[in-house]
Specification:
The structure is a homodimer. Chain A contains 14 helices and twelve strands. In chain A, the strands form three sheets. A six-stranded parallel sheet of chain A has the order 2-1-3-4-5-11, with helices on one face. Chain A has a four-stranded parallel sheet with strand order 7-6-8-9, sandwiched between helices. Chains A and B meet through helix 4, helix 5, strand 2, helix 6 and helix 10 of A and helix 4, helix 5, strand 2, helix 6 and helix 10 of B. Chain A binds a DNA duplex (16 and 16 nucleotides) through helix 2 and helix 4.
DNA sequence: TTGTACGCGTTATCAA
DNA sequence: TTGATAACGCGTACAA
């Protein structure tokens, strides 16, 4: 591993001059610049990022906080899409990332979380699907000690941006479509996500608006994005409903499988558009969003913040459609 | 962020003394030790890892190389299990990890890969499911410039360990069981994985042995672990076979779905035991292995290498069984 | 047992 | 336009 000293020696200049060339200072003659660049190429010199960070006193490291729920053996593909998107961007920008699971922070105070992250030299966060119940993280964002980008939570301040789809309109669209496609629709069972999650609240609001417009009787139960819990709700409540609207595909899959076992049929719609849906061979309306792209966008926003930009709100597109197995496996 | 100087000042000792206390040197009086520890606690001092690495000249960073295939929208859960296992251990050992996709290194020379990794201060690798065709990585391992742990590739040297299940016996077991359960078994279609993959070769050997023992006619086709390709193989060859043995669950799922569409039934067995299988509601024999655990074990082996141990070969357990939806969602 | 001084690889400042 | 030198925070030989 060649160091800056080796380059300086080979180019016959001082190491501070090498540093200037590398960091694009103005006051360097073309001649010495050329000499230095030749030496850099010859030695295959790459600056030692550790030393750079020590000297500059800033070490940009991004903590990715993913809300992986370990209550099923199946690891949510959504989070995987989020992570791969962020990994890709981290390579592009040459910024280190560290992955965390939000469960890690439960039971800690905001102060504890903050020093835990500081100890790992993390100064930025991308938080996916923050729950309002995660008080410590919410406080962290308010304190603005870290640069933050929130995916699917509508908080913005000077150091915090937000990247999300319009959950309200999306839920409205997919539910309206499903309800209108069906003959019996006087009773709708809505299986909401986890209490405290921002997206849960927005989606629930959409259902309430739709209820006024159509109208119908709305039964709301919380499935907490948990397939098994949804299953139990279905067993208990499905008979009372004409149509079942779920706030996530995972819950919708749980609902359909439970209905099948009960040997009754009710229209169901989901939310997310996950590829797994293709494998279940269930054809239901859902909201398709590009998690990979959303995560990449989030990283771009983070980069803007690091470059001195102010926090802003970004809205990404979605599509109401069905997920087909053949489309999924062909890419 | 308190530094070692702050601690020294508060404790009224020299910073080198603080360092000694922190690094558990023997020759420090209990009295000063107590003073220093009190100051550390008081200030919430955590050593600056950047400065530590610069000073020690070693920066342990692990590159995780996963073989995510982007030829399907569905991201392989196996890799996700591998990554989460490694992430968990990285926190336990306080060692940084960086995730790479093997496709990134295709077309690079061994030298290029090596300096690319060096530039990122990576000195360890965990490589999941290495393909023999990835010549640059194979050379890297042989050169022993990095501490390596290979998951599912049987290479071991001084700086390289291997963690794997017994693919030969596992493939033998599941195929034998499936064949014996069935009446017609004179022709077996074996859909192998990617050419060049170590596991592909071991599993294929098992089929050849079995063929001699039972015996039956063995037709071998390469599905490259690709579901879509498997589909095409099935459409072309399924009629010629009594039983279909697949070298992975993803391929097995592709096979079953294709057979269903062709409206013919043939027994199929898979390999891996992925939770996705539960969602397809297909009941087939497969080899269940714990990817999460395998990855954690791999990290443990890496730690041993870093602590001065020699490379060794670790064999993990597996189980021949079926994957049930209800088991999957309940955990 | 404690403290001093130097090195690690880089950037920033200031004098030449 | 260049070069010498002091930080940055820590570990460690060596002197006290």
């Amino acid at each position: 591993m060649a160091s800056i000293n080796d380059v300086a020696k080979m180019a016959g200049v001082a190491k501070s001059t090498v540093s200037k060339v590398l960091n694009n200072y103005q006051l360097v003659s073309d001649e010495t610049k050329a000499k230095v660049e030749a030496a850099v190429l010859e030695l295959g010199y790459v600056p030692n990022s550790v030393a750079v960070s020590l000297s500059k006193k800033v070490f940009n490291r991004v903590g990715l906080i993913v809300d992986i729920r370990h209550n099923s053996q199946f690891i949510d593909e959504i989070d995987m899409q989020y992570l791969t998107g962020a990994f890709e961007k981290s390579k592009e920008y040459q910024i280190d990332v560290v992955t965390f699971f939000s469960s890690q922070f439960e039971g800690m105070t905001a102060k504890q979380v903050s020093s835990y992250l500081e100890a790992q030299r993390i100064n930025c966060l991308i938080i996916y699907n923050l729950s309002r119940e995660n008080q410590n993280l919410v406080k962290l964002i308010e304190k603005q000690e870290f640069y933050c980008v929130l995916v699917d939570s509508p908080i913005v301040n000077k150091k915090t941006s937000s990247v999300t789809i319009d959950h309200f309109t999306a839920q409205y669209d997919v539910a309206r479509k499903t309800i209108e496609e069906n003959k019996f629709k006087s009773k709708v069972l809505y299986i909401a996500g986890g209490r405290g999650s921002y997206i849960t609240e927005q989606r629930l609001e959409a259902m309430k608006k739709l209820k006024e417009e159509i109208p119908f009787e709305l039964i709301v139960k919380h499935g907490d994005f948990n397939e098994y819990k949804t299953r139990e709700i279905i067993i208990k409540w499905a008979k009372k409903a004409d149509i079942i609207v779920c706030a996530s595909d995972m819950m919708a899959i749980g609902a359909v499988f439970a209905l099948t076992e009960m040997d009754i049929f009710k229209p169901v719609c989901g939310f997310d558009g996950i590829p797994l849906m293709g494998y279940t061979k269930i054809a239901m309306n859902t909201v398709r969003q590009d998690f990979f792209e959303k995560s990449k966008q989030a990283f771009d926003e983070l980069k803007k913040l690091l470059d001195g930009g102010e926090g802003q709100h970004i809205v990404m597109p979605y599509k109401v459609c069905k997920i087909d197995y053949m489309d999924v496996i062909q890419k």
